[in-house]
Amino acid sequence: MTTATTGFIGKSVRRTEDPRLITGRGTYVDDVRLVGMLHMALVRSPHAHARIRKVNVARAAKAPGVVAVFTGADLQEQLGSLPAGWVLKDMKQPPHPPLAYEKVRCVGDAVAAVVADSLYAAADAAQLVDVDYEQLPAVVDAEKATKRGAPLLHKEAPNNTAFDWSVGGGDYDAAAKKAEVVVKQRFINQRLIPNAMETRGVVADYNPGTNQITLWTSTQIPHLVRLLFSAITGHPEQQVRVIAPEVGGGFGSKLYIYAEEIITGMIAKNLGRPVKWVEGRQENYMATTHGRDHITDAEICGNRDGTVTGLKCTVYSNMGGYLSTFAPLIPTILYGLLLSGVYKVPNISCRVYGVFTNTTPVDAYRGAGRPEATYLVERLMERFAHEIGRDPVAVRRKNFLPPFKNGRTVATGVNYDSGNYRAVVDKALEMFDYRAFRQEQRAARRSGKLVGVGFSTYIEISGLAPSAVAAALGGGAGTWESSTVRIHPTGKVTVYTGTSPHGQGHETSLSQVAAQELGVPMEHIEVLHGDTDKQQFGTGTFGSRSIAVGGGALVMSLRKVKDKARKIAAHQMGVPEKNVMFENGAFYAKDIREKQMPFATVAGEAYHAKNLPKGLEPGLEATSFFNPENFTWPFGCHIAVVEIDEATGQTKLKRYVAVDDVGNVINPMIVDGMVHGGVAQGIGQAMQEGAVYGEDGQLLTGSMLDYAVPTAEDLPSFETARTVTPSPSNPLGVKGAGEAGTIAATPAVVNAAVDALAHLGIKHLDMPLSSERIWRAIQEAKGERTAARSARAKAARRARR
Amino acid sequence: MPHEITVTVNGTRHTSSVEPRLLLAHYLRDVLNLTGTHVGCDTTSCGACTVLLNRNAVKSCTVLAVQANGGEVTTVEGLAKDGKYHPIQQAFWDKHGLQCGFCTPGMMVTAVQILERNPKPSEEEIRSGLRGNLCRCTGYHNIIEAVKAAAAAAMAAGDRKR
Asked: Phi/psi at A308 (nearest 5 deg)?
């Protein structure tokens, strides 16, 4: 089923997107300007938990430039409630009004909208809206929120618990009883703020003559936004057009239906005028979803020969104040199903509580569940190896699943597509001299320098997804992808894809696929995306699915148009169809090479329609929907080297090696770029990022001054390489590359830091690895060692006496 | 009270009447319709809005339009000359120094200044020079490669001239 990676596929072609982006001619939402456009500012709650007693808009309504002010109560009926698009068994799904009217449940909940003729006027008037709040006690910690007496967010969800989900295989308790070693550890996977460089924004236009609402929105899922906008507001779906123009990064944070999309659209409808809302960065920190935030008690069991026999975890997963669109999927399916990692682990037990707290909703952030799972598995492997006194690489190798090409089922019940886990470790160790490093490490320690190495051999689940499987697991929409290929009469090509890129370079990669299949130059191909009035339906770009699923849909359409063109060529050349060959963009008759028709000539004939085979429709165009049979399962081995200053705790990343297997690769330059960016975000979590709430629910890291997005100075250059194990799940044999780096990086870096400090007796460090945290850990360890030494000396003295 | 200002942007003189509180970034984007300069934060942290004001890289979200009165501004739209990309634009394209493109205008403008002040920067100097510009897509790896390539191209061009 796999296409050979020759010709256009597999080449590092420069991106076709770039000329407009390097000249400042890309059109992002904030660049959209419509005649008569108004500007909207939202009034947001400063309290984490409060009842709304009264909203007085009188002063704001009279302010200069103000056209209208709306409260949640004004629009209650029109705005409806934002649903979760993923529904687990017995899940509690309380209402989520886009504009709050009874209660606010996190700092940043919107309570009123001010519309004015300029951005500055709207912002000024928003300050004049007077909201009378009755403050309520707040809870921000997912574990504490489930305890008796905790403040209750939603009456529909007792103990603040939205769901209680579990997965497993074998019998962990029995395995632990039999095991020679059981290692227990509590892990905090801290909350992150995604920080796409472009914040969200919406421009909405309404034409009362056609009843058409048009939304320009910074989203990864224009087609799902249209579907959900229509479902929530009741506005007819065919009269909603959603356009995702240039989108400045997403990383999962633009993968939902958001309150502001509903609010802006319906206010434009009410006023009959275009309305623009663009999120400020501090607003983004409160109003755009966060990621991660797990509190986990975990254990791993096995024998002293290095065999792992079981893994167990209990997770409190923070959902924030409401369930965002995909939130229930992330800590369950995309987490629990991955707990076998790349290993044979016969006994697995996982229980996840999804918990409401008075914080910004948490949903997918690059990796989405898989970084949390990989961090857990890879840290536990390291802890286990350390506990039995064996080398962590050797212990990993001992437990690897052997290589396989066509399916392998693990204890969590999922079927990995293809894998060769030894190969990525071998390749990584060609790039990194492990033995030499251990010698250097010992020598460095003697001279008072602390260095450490950390490994992460990860697997991830991507290419979402087989629709029936997704639906069985709670998915509320099909997870196929679609394409249309339109051949113009001149032989030029337009590709319409349902995927919706925001930096991934789909225009380039999909052009490469089309050029390869049709034998036409890339300059003759235009790839269009992100406009529900132009494309057939689509699902969108997330979960590293666009080339695996969207590329699959494209190949199907390309083959359909090529088959039809072949019929026309055969008819006109007067040879049987089976004798028509295709090479270098031309059809030719087998054995009669001079009899040939260039693809463009056949295209012209398809539209001229003067001499087509009997019964064949004119035109040359095809639409396809690809619904894969399985997910794809990329994997790899990452190695981090850190150096720690013992006096200050300052930790520096000295080297980072990434070997990934993402199946076949369309454009190596683009894949490398995605690995770099993913790794940087993983390193960010491991070393410096973290969203912090006060006990009262105030977001203490409320701006870019307080939240440490990595800068160029914080990171090294990366060393990347690949192995290729094609996926049997799709026609291109690709696996997906967008999230691998983020999934792999956190345990590699933390394992390295713990390795650097292991001789002091340090076994675990939570993220981020701030200087303070490491310094404290060193002081504590030294204190314990000193105390232990003096206790031993005392005991010895006593024994001598 | 609106103020009258005259600013030369990318070689063209503009005279406008602006509110004193209008930010230079908003002046460029909303008054002159030069939307290549992006606004990515509200705390002078991200650098997406970086432009050259009198040959100094500044974050245009933290400069008032009235402060640019009488000055010369270069934005991303002014980098290419005579239909030819500036070497930094060419290098960002060749080396895949951008993904979503949102930070790119500010990143390139800052890089132009780095190379003007130090034509042969080390990797460390490039990283330090770019620390006021955030990128979330590239991990900076290929941005650094692009700046190195632009420096090498400028050096080679200089050698040819000599």
From this structure: -90, 130
